[in-house]
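Side project, low priority. Logging it here so it doesn't get lost.
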Amino acid sequence: MTILEAIRYGIENISSDTPQLDAEVLLSSALGKDRVYLIIHRDDVLDSDILEKYKGYVERRKKGEPVAYIINKREFYGYEFYVEKGVLIPRPDTEILVEEVIKRSRAYKNPTIVDVGCGSGAISVTLAKEIEGSRVFALDLMDTPIKVTKINAKRLGVEDRVTVLKSDVFENLNKDLEGKVDIIVSNPPYIKDEVIPTLMIDVKDYEPYEALSGGEDGLIFYRRIAEEALKYLRKDGLIAFEIGYDQREDLFNILSKDYKDIECIKDLAGLDRVIIARRG
């Protein structure tokens, strides 16, 4: 089977919104080459071991497994992150949260940053890479995110500035940081429990439930993080959340008691996506 024939095989067997893209990415991974190579070498015949590996990838994708879990990587903010089942797959929308935090970090010299619910480490590692002199604490309750964040911090050369802690929200964060944290950032689970069964198969059946469920109203973690953050944030310290498209008003209500300068930033589709505020 040639490269072109293999791509056609993938398109015919993958049920997704982007079958050609999925097939090309999976074949590129099996070959250890980029997608440009597929175009230039479209008539090359694939070795049998590569073909079998690729067909295995296609079969997994056919069943709904996300491409990122199959090839163990996902690009985020221009960096390549290692991912595996058990961590939320980084999404482009979250880059908006990171971008807004980077902009506002210029107000702090060598800022201390806490990422609550670090997942793959996409937020915490990217902030460490992009914000000079920053010191980042990446917190998560689950073992797989802890492991994966450590892998990505090392791969991207910031393991000396990213401290990864197993923690239920702020529970295990060093008490010496109370009142000294400049920025707290989080992309918490925010999907209502009743909505999760309606999500696409590659999300609801493969991505960790703990990284999706925000409780009955989707707001349980926002309330808890906003309240407990008060102990750690310095005066005028920044808190930044990714939110669901319909959660702006709820977050304003949650934050208005103890925070000021609350603002909402929209994503590229014009939907509410990020809420940022300062400690009063």
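Brief comment: The domain at 85-279 is CATH 3.40.50.150 (Rossmann fold).
Revisit when time allows.
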